[in-house]
Design a protein that fits this description.
The protein is α/β, with parallel strands linked by helices. It is built from 20 helices and 22 strands. It folds into 3 domains: 7-143, Beta-Lactamase; 153-303, Alpha-Beta Plaits (2-Layer Sandwich), CATH 3.30.70; 315-565, TIM Barrel (Alpha-Beta Barrel), CATH 3.20.20. The protein has an 8-stranded mixed barrel with strand order 13-14-16-17-18-19-20-21, surrounded by 5 helices. The protein is elongated, with a radius of gyration of 38 Å. The model is unreliable at 1-5 and 571-587 (pLDDT under 50).
Amino acid sequence: MEPSWSLPLLSEILSAFSTEDPENLRNVLNRVAESVDAEVAAIICDGRIDWCIGLSAAEQGLLVQTAADEPPELAIRAGRLNTFWASMGSNDRLMVGRLGLAYDLEERSLLRAMARSIQLSLRLLAAISSERQARLDASYQASHDPLTDLPNRTLVLEKLAGWIDNPPQDGDQYTAVLFIDIDRFKWVNDAHGHAAGDEVLVHVSVILKRSVGPNDLVGRLSGDEFIVLTRTPSAQACTDLALRILTAIQTPIQVAGTELSHSASVGICIAEPHDTASSVIENADMAMYEAKALGRGGFALFEPRMRQKAQERLSLEEELRHAVGSGQIEAHLQPIVRLSDGKLMGFEALARWRHPEQGLLSPAIFIAAAEESGLIEQIDLIVLEAACQAVGRWQRLPGLGHLRVSSNLSGRTLGSADLVAHIDPILAASGIKVAQVFLEITETSLVEDIPSTASTIERMRQLGVQLAIDDFGTGYSSLLYLKRFPVGLLKIDRSFVANLGSNPDDEAIARAILSLAKALGVEVVAEGVETTTQQEWLTDLHCAYGQGYLYGRPKPMAAIEADLIKPLGPGTPLLDGQRPAAETIQP
């Protein structure tokens, strides 16, 4: 028989390996079968059929069962196949079968050559495919976040630039960016560890992908910063999307065995024709900071005025960082007195910034920046250390051993894993009576994670430090905190004190707080006492302690020592009806 196989045909068969068609090998097998007038061809690798033509599923099963013996004939429904088996290296074999005549010597020789050629071509194809896949993997890894598998900053910028450069033709859609930042995320890492933080990030990434449309893009820029690119018909559609995202993120999740409630802030920017990808993201970032400034857990649309505000915020953070490192942060003390006789009982320590150009600055100017930058932890510890040093020294004076001090802790400081390790040496070095140290925490700073907060507070209690809840009555978890935490002191918020004698509602609230504290055996300090009328009402209500301008404004340590400590002998009352002079503070 004149074989139909030829060198040009072999060349044509092998050239098929240069294609990327998944059916490529099937076409090769078809040409091999045609070349020797065969009806069946198969490639068998490690006891399984990789590719096969001309056999039914049942017949392929029979082929697999008998392949190890390489039978010269195989019975199929169409008749008996004369088979030829050619090795392709290792356990791989090419099998060609035809009905009728057996293969002659030349055909066998040519089929062996074809098997070796296919083997070499497959190896080459595998190497090329492996290299191509490696390049694709490297490209994917370079453009995607390894934790969440979301597009990273590089890919987000690339996609956004393409969207801006190629706006929709109908003109009814606009490119918009939503910049999402998880509120107080550092607190999650500090309180629960980075593994828990990663769990929150993955959870948020899933929420974002579920919240957006099929044509939107979700990316992770860095840390706890996510981004959504969307085509939108209006600003209202953007705010609706932001609200869906915020609502979904606020759903509590289980992290490190604890139910954790968290929130996010969203900044929105709709791209203008002259914008670049970078400028749109920067604008959305500024809007996000505006949302945080408005109270977190919300959203804000970008406005041009925010750029100036952002520059001022960055400048403030830099100045504040320098201030913390150069000793410009001071602790000022405000007196706390016993209402029954006006005796000085202690002080609240308050942070002040002695700015070299602007003078003494109130916390209202810099505390928000301190919290966002993480400097608040250093500031809290600076104030606590200075106050403990001063009050500890005064306690050792005759008749002043009863003095106490309370110092504020922000929620971020409370979430620090090293908080107790920092406080312990401060107390030891100051020589202060630890039982007379109160750490003041506002209700809202406790709501992040009650179990973790309780653990930190318990460790502080073991040191001997007591807990005070500041601004009591203004939060929404007052009773829960009294139940869960070892509270030693409540401070009635000044908003309830201000209208004593003129507002029955405030009087009822103050009376209720005092009754609750008495039942629980907790001491009470009324804040913001400025008039004798307020003082009389509080005294009649059996409030033990008062703090406010009636007794003295916050002053530097030296002024407190000169004005209050040195003149004060045992049993000498502080009250004389006059307000001590105070240094002017920039509002």
